[in-house]
């Protein structure tokens, strides 16, 4: 019997080509370090796209995963289970929310949220109040509904006709929202900081104004905190810093620390509209995912971890500013906590991927947010020494790209 060789080339043979993964294949991780098939070592500034909030193979997460794996993995939603109930109670105790719906991903959490805002308006105001407003450059998932609410047309192209009654305003532009919102609007959806759109924080006046407009027009406010949630900004959820409380909040990514889980949180005012039989998820709320997420929440929702995010943010900014003094390639460094974007100057627009590839060659894993922004979303507990070592690798990568461009 021949053993199948597993390498990057096999991807092209057996996988749908919607992804184009890096040439190296990671096989092992520990903390903020990753090793590939050739035992090359990398520092991880990507965090699985803001997912591995406690790094790779955190011992407490591994322990609770193994314990639950020996106990109970899955039940249908004909039954509830203890880990799901404990996690839901901790989420409602820690946030504005009264009720929780569990699913498997951020897109599913957003799908539930968008269905809820329409159903709530249908129940309380009638079928004509069905319009959803979101924001250009926003990103809310890859289902047909969520990609339609998202404000990046490239993700909808070829999949039309898309769901209707969806409008897109300009982010951080309250006048743009005022021009679109009406008594037909059932919900306004936004990311407190746009992630995929370029790591663009919503300013405080804008967020407050959106809340006021929603109240004025009896529309629900949905905060997509799939990327900003569970400590990413230095607060358990970003809405807590803004002082603006949404009606519905979605969370995933960091919630499972790498294990797939998503959740939609909402108030008692709106929860009854998702009554028995209106929505569901076969795997949502399974004991295995909820047990891991409960431990993630226990670890992250502490003063030590949350305050440590601000400390690490300061180091990232310090190091990125040093790089900019040396190379002069960044127009702006922005973001909050450990969701940081470094926008390239116009001369380097469209070339973020070149820096990503060069960083990988130097032993650094990072992200982009579109073609013009380098993005960093590492573990919330990444050692400070790893940040500085990773930045030294990024310096070498930038030097190589700049040198090549001059040649």
Tell me briefly what this model is.
It catalyses: N(2)-acetyl-L-ornithine + 2-oxoglutarate = N-acetyl-L-glutamate 5-semialdehyde + L-glutamate. The chain is an alpha/beta fold and about 400 residues long.
What do you see in this structure?
A hairpin with a 4-residue loop joins β16 and β17 (373-376). The chain has 2 domains: 8-57 and 303-406, Aspartate Aminotransferase, domain 1, CATH 3.90.1150; 72-300, Type I PLP-dependent aspartate aminotransferase-like (Major domain) (Aspartate Aminotransferase, domain 2), CATH 3.40.640.10. α3 (59-69) packs antiparallel against α10 (287-300), α4 runs parallel beside α10 (287-300) and α11 runs parallel beside α13. The protein has a 7-stranded mixed β-sheet with strand order 4-12-11-10-7-5-6, with helices on both faces. Strands 1-2-3-15 form a 4-stranded mixed β-sheet. A 4-stranded antiparallel β-sheet has the order 13-14-17-16. It has helices at residues 8-14, 47-50, 59-69, 82-94, 106-125, 144-149, 174-180, 204-216, 239-242, 287-300, 303-327, 352-361, 384-406; strands at 26-30, 33-36, 41-44, 99-103, 131-135, 166-169, 185-190, 193-194, 200-201, 220-224, 248-251, 262-266, 330-336, 339-344, 364-365, 367-368, 373-376. It is an alpha/beta fold. The mean pLDDT is 96. This is Acetylornithine aminotransferase. Homodimer. The modification N6-(pyridoxal phosphate)lysine is found at residue 253. Pyridoxal 5'-phosphate binds at residues 106-107, 139, 224-227, 282.
């Amino acid at each position: 019997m021949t053993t199948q060789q597993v390498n990057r080339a096999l991807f092209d043979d057996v996988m749908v080509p919607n992804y184009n993964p890096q040439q190296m294949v990671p096989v092992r991780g520990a903390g903020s370090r990753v090793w590939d098939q050739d035992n090359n070592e990398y520092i991880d500034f990507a965090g699985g796209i803001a997912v591995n909030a406690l790094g790779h193979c955190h011992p407490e997460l591994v322990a609770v995963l193994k314990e639950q794996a020996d106990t109970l993995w899955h039940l249908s939603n004909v039954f509830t289970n203890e880990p799901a109930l404990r996690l839901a109670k901790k989420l409602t105790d820690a946030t504005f929310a009264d009720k929780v719906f569990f699913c498997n991903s951020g897109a599913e959490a957003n799908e539930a949220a968008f269905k809820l805002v329409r159903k709530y308006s249908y129940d309380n105001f009638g079928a004509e109040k069905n319009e959803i407003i979101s924001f250009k450059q926003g990103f809310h998932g890859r289902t047909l509904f969520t990609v339609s609410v998202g404000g990046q047309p490239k993700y909808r192209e070829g999949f039309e006709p898309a769901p209707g009654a969806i409008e897109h305003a300009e982010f951080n532009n309250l006048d743009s929202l005022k021009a679109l919102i009406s008594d037909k609007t059932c919900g306004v959806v936004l990311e407190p900081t746009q992630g995929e759109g370029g790591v663009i924080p919503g300013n405080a006046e804008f967020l407050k104004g959106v809340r006021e407009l929603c109240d004025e027009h009896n529309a629900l406010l949905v905060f997509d905190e799939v990327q900003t949630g569970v400590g990413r900004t230095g607060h358990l959820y970003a809405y807590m810093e803004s002082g603006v409380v949404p009606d519905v909040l979605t969370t995933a990514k960091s919630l499972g620390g790498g294990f797939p889980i998503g959740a939609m949180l909402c108030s008692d005012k709106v929860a009854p509209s998702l009554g028995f039989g209106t929505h569901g998820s076969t795997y949502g709320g399974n004991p295995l995912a909820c047990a891991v997420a409960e431990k993630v929440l226990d670890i992250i929702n502490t003063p030590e971890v949350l305050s440590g995010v601000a400390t690490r943010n300061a180091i990232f900014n310090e190091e990125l500013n040093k790089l900019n003094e040396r190379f002069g390639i960044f127009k702006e460094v922005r973001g909050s906590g450990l969701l940081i974007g470094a926008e390239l100057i116009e001369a380097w627009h469209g070339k973020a991927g070149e820096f990503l590839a060069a960083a990988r060659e130097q032993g650094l894993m990072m992200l982009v947010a579109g073609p013009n922004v380098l993005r960093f979303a590492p573990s919330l507990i990444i050692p400070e020494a790893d940040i500085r070592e990773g930045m030294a690798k990024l310096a070498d990568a930038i030097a190589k790209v700049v040198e090549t461009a001059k040649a």
